[in-house]
Amino acid sequence: MTSNKGLPSVPLHPIERTLLLYLSNVETKGKWADLNSVVAGSRLSVDQVRRAVQWMKSKELIELQEEDAVFYTLGLEGKTAAVEGLPERKLVKLLEASGGSLTLGALSEKMGSEFSIAFGTAKKNGWIELYGRDAQLNRSKIREKEEEELLLEKLNEKEKLASPEISQREKEVLSRLISRHRGLVNEIIEKNVRLKISSQGLEASKSVNKDEIDEITPEVILNGSWRNQPLRALDVTSAAPAYFGGRKHPIRMFIDEVKEVFVSLGFEEVEGPMVQSALWNFDALYIPQQHSTREMQDTFYLSNVRADLSVYDKEINSVKASHENGAGTGSLGWQYKWSKEEARRTVLRTHTTAVTIKYLSDNKPTEARVFCVGKVFRNEKPNYKNNPEFHQIEGVTVGPGLNVRNLIYIITRFYSKLGFEKIKFWPTYFPYTEPSLQTMAYYEKKKRWIELGGMGVFRPEVTIPLGVKNPVLAWGLGLDRLVMMRYDLNDIRDLFGANLGWLRTASVI
Ligand code: PHE
After folding, report:
1. Would you give the distance in Å from CA 322 to the centre of its chain?
2. Contacts of residue 340, Cβ cutoff 8 Å, sequence gap at least 6
3. Distance, CA of 298 to CA of 377 (rounded, Å)
4. pLDDT value at position 282?
5. Three-state SS for 222?
6. Could you give the domains of the chain?
7. Protein residue whose Cα sits closest to atom 9 of ligand 1
8. What confidence score (pLDDT) does residue 2 get?
9. β-bridge mates for residue 290, sequence order
């Protein structure tokens, strides 16, 4: 076994160790030191010192003092003014050069954009007087250097003046310069950090072992030093910044779970586009062309986009016959004139049944178990429980002799695998199924029943024209409410927003 002797009571990172030893040094011990001197003395980088200071502060190994340090520096225009003089001084020089007087027009022309500020200040100082249109120097009022100019020169020389180096009088002049014109003098406020070792730090510094092995490298293993030198302890309880890697959206995670369940029940996944022709979204499902669900207020139609249905001539003829006269299924159909143009309209699919019915038509299986999970769209006003886009869990099973009891069994198994044990069914109506059922599940945690969706046995008017001979059990269930339950959300819109805080931290309950 390795020897654990000599482990410090406080686990220290190498940079903490260096800093602690530096601060416990005879010269620095017990004295306040600013960050720069610590950086210079400890030979760590500024970033390393900053990091170590954070850690050591939380371990109470050091004491910290933070105060604002105020500095003044020259701005761009201040630098020019320090060399060339302030605008009012330039104006004085110009007047001097032309014998002490000039017309305002001439002055303004010579001074350009600085004229008005130079003139204003010179006038206020009493340096010039106006006689008609002439400006004249008032030499008695002009000193060789004004306080502002002296200070600008001082700043230019020293580059930076810290608050303690400035007299009260100078402070007033500085604030005048700052408020006079932007870019002359900058006031910079820096956080000044001073630190010293605490008594706990001093104590800890005594048990610092410089021979500690920080990293298990191949050398450390090969030369056997790991056997007798102590290894650095890691403080696994110390605070670390939260790290948010990429993660799937809660809806995606739940969809994956649903897919797992269906696959475990022997189902295969099918997919289809979100934009569908009315043929697959409505007509193939024996939904009459005047049916209210097709109306604009429920369905998002794509304007000016018509589907090219020429490859489906055969299907179209049978669907048309089914709607108009029952196509020999023993039914009379809906008894109206079916329009191909109406079937060519395109929609954002209003249910995923469009995908499974197309699968049946394309494959005409005698036996099948397929499912589809995807987005659907309905023209609804968004509120806490409805959103114009949501998700459905769709599926069909095809096989000889299948009936509604098999359907109830499959749906019960499915929900039980997702954790919903108590569910109930009751009759309802869909144009494409007979019998039709609706279902609800009991959510134990909330002691509430929630609506899950619809299902039934496809009518012969749907399946026979598409060439499917055996009974088809079909369902289309809501997904989003289940996700809301899982995440304890009360508003469906939260699922579709970009609330990063929630997306990063949401955990499955
Ligand atoms: N399509 C129906 C809906 O969107 C659900 C359903 C699917 C009903 C299949 C019966 C059969 O609500």
Report:
1. 51
2. 309, 316, 320
3. 9
4. 97
5. helix
6. 1-61+198-240 (no CATH), 74-187 (1.10.10), 252-505 (3.30.930.10)
7. 475
8. 41
9. none
Reported as a pLDDT band with limits 50, 70 and 90, residue 487 is confident
* Closest-CA residue to 212 (of 240, 233, 197, 196): 233
DSSP assignments along 126-152, one per residue: TSEEEETTEEEE-GGG--SS-HHHHHH
H helix and E strand count, the chain: 22, 17
Residue 332 is encoded by which pair of tokens?
């009379």
Q: Which residue has the higher pLDDT, 382 or 361?
A: 361
Helix H or strand E encompassing 66: strand 62-74
Protein residue with its CA nearest to atom 2 in ligand 1: 476
- Which amino acid, residue 194? R
- pLDDT single digits (tens) 174-185: 888 888 877 889
Q: How confident is the model at residue 5 (pLDDT cuts 50, 70, 90)?
A: very low
Q: Residue 433: CB within 6 Å of ligand 1?
A: yes
- Please give the number of the atom of ligand 1 that sits closest to the Cα of 477: 5
> What per-residue confidence (pLDDT) applies to 332?
96
Q: What DSSP state is assigned to residue 432?
A: T
Buried-exposed string 429-466: b where 16+ CB fall within 10 A, e elsewhere: ebbbbeebbbbbbebeeeeeebebbbbbbbbbbbbbbb
C-beta 474 within 6 A of ligand 1: yes
Burial state string for 69-97 with b = 16 or more CB within 10 A and e = fewer than 16:
ebebbbbeebbbbbeebbbbbbbbebbee
* CA neighbor of 132 nearest in space, from 104, 107, 151: 104
| Angle (deg, nearest 10), helices 76-84 and 147-158 | 110
Helical H segments across 265-395, by residue range: 278-281, 313-325, 340-343, 353-363
Q: What average pLDDT does this structure show over 398-412?
A: 97
Residue with the nearest Cα to atom 3 of ligand 1?
Answer: 476
The b/e string for 128-138 (b: 16+ C-beta within 10 A; e otherwise) is beeeeeebebb
Is this prediction's pTM over 0.70? no
Amino acid at residue number 347: V
Assess whether the C-beta atom of 286 lies below 6 angstroms from ligand 1.
no
Q: In this predicted structure, what is the pLDDT of residue 356?
A: 98
Average pLDDT over residues 233-255: 86
